[in-house]
Amino acid sequence: MTSLEDLISTWAAKFRTHPDGSRLPAHHAACLGCGENNPHGHHLRVHREGDGVVARHTFDERHVGAPGIAHGGAVAAVVDDFYGFLLYLTDGPAVTRNLVLDYLAPVLLGVEYELRANITRTEGRKLFVEATMSEVATSRRVVCSTALFLKVDVGHFLQGEPTGSFGQGSGQ
Ligand SMILES: CCCCCCCCCCCC(=O)SCCNC(=O)CCNC(=O)[C@H](O)C(C)(C)COP(=O)(O)OP(=O)(O)OC[C@H]1O[C@@H](n2cnc3c(N)ncnc32)[C@H](O)[C@@H]1OP(=O)(O)O
């Protein structure tokens, strides 16, 4: 299993300049939102677009709440992780302190959605961010969100220990 120190150093190395339009690296291989090795994960693929980030995502039966409709917690997990890619456009790690979602319409399973997020302002350690999720086919907005991320040093991540078998690799 990849050690926590390895994960932290590979994650820190991802805070480099990412060209506009490029795909941004996963947080790590086991990440629920974007890790390619997590069988329960959302496998988000996120690109930089200007000063923001963009992704397309389709929820499936693993994420069901009401029949045919994504669970609100699964939607929040995706939005939270998606915000985590904005951090690559800053100078270092931060974590979610506050996350607000407005569920404007049901997020349907098997329907492709586009997510967009950007940083609205920074104030010391605080990063205020906003995001939207819209149906690709119709442009209908189904979620809008704001969040507050707080910059932390890498010691924050030493509070946990990697467990299980999904954590092989850094998610580069
Ligand atoms: C291996 C690597 C993998 C890395 C993998 C990374 C994956 C990324 C995935 C996506 C992101 C996540 O899921 S992150 C996971 C979920 N989040 C977490 O686990 C974080 C848990 N919370 C914490 O650890 C802590 O609360 C912190 C570090 C966030 C903050 O603690 P703190 O430093 O003591 O700060 P605190 O005093 O609470 O607040 C700081 C300032 O924010 C203000 N503040 C607080 N709430 C608000 C608010 N709603 N609106 C405005 N301002 C607010 C306070 O008034 C204060 O202002 P002032 O008095 O200073 O002015």
From TrEMBL:
<feature type="domain" description="Thioesterase">
    <location>
        <begin position="68"/>
        <end position="133"/>
    </location>
</feature>
<keyword id="KW-0378">Hydrolase</keyword>
<keyword id="KW-0966">Cell projection</keyword>
<dbReference type="GO" id="GO:0016787">
    <property type="term" value="F:hydrolase activity"/>
</dbReference>
<keyword id="KW-0809">Transit peptide</keyword>
<keyword id="KW-0472">Membrane</keyword>
<keyword id="KW-1003">Cell membrane</keyword>
<protein>
    <recommendedName>
        <fullName>Acyl-coenzyme A thioesterase THEM4</fullName>
        <ecNumber>3.1.2.2</ecNumber>
    </recommendedName>
</protein>
<keyword id="KW-0963">Cytoplasm</keyword>
<dbReference type="Pfam" id="PF03061">
    <property type="entry name" value="4HBT"/>
</dbReference>
<keyword id="KW-0443">Lipid metabolism</keyword>
<dbReference type="InterPro" id="IPR006683">
    <property type="entry name" value="Thioestr_dom"/>
</dbReference>
<dbReference type="InterPro" id="IPR029069">
    <property type="entry name" value="HotDog_dom_sf"/>
</dbReference>
<keyword id="KW-0276">Fatty acid metabolism</keyword>
<dbReference type="InterPro" id="IPR052365">
    <property type="entry name" value="THEM4/THEM5_acyl-CoA_thioest"/>
</dbReference>
<keyword id="KW-0053">Apoptosis</keyword>
<comment type="similarity">
    <text>Belongs to the THEM4/THEM5 thioesterase family.</text>
</comment>
